[in-house]
Amino acid sequence: VSTQSTGGAGWVMSTRVIGSTARCTHVCFRSVSFTASPSLAGPAKVDQRSLSTASWGRQLLTMRLHSLVDDPTQPGLHGVCGVKPVALRDIAAEELVFQEGGAVTHEASMHSIQTGANSHVTILGDGRFLAHSFSPNLKVRIHEHAVEGSAVDASGGPRRTLPVEFLALHPIQEGETLSFDYTTTEWECESPFDDSVSGRSVKGFRHLSQSDKESLLNRGLIAPHILRLWLSEICHSATHQ
What we know:
The protein is mainly beta.
């Protein structure tokens, strides 16, 4: 299988994998100019009523597109049930639904999203309640430039950013539960669990079958840091055969 995928803005990662043993025969990182696929890194096609534009160019979500409702299937604090986000109105494909950030750390937690090989952003907003699904209606876009560098700011406290966005994979109906596939951002899940719908284990991208990994790759859903970790693992295996 020969693959070529964006590994961050302005970069292309090419790999060639031969046979089921995932033998790496060609690896190339090169800087290019390209028009990205909307499913990978392109600007979201969004309802302009819900957005404003920051002075540095990135669109900011200003209209709430979700509401939180009780979720009896999830445990909550103090003996009450958990909550889940649902669509507040019909949402168009590629529309920006959540824009999240928080403290950047080197350790995963229940409400963090992996944003680099050794970095995790602790989500502060309602996006931390998004459910996992192997058939999600949201995809994740990580602005890597916003999470590079030290995990602390100039004052020594945790650095805060807004690097994680969730966009609609397809049209979403009002009232529909909002979800994304955790394995597209997590190499190793901090607390593995079983998917409530399929019964499949959710342990992180590293533990998916080869066919599942290639399916996510072909759909453009894998975060850039996961692509790099996968490539590193393939090449490491190849050199030890």
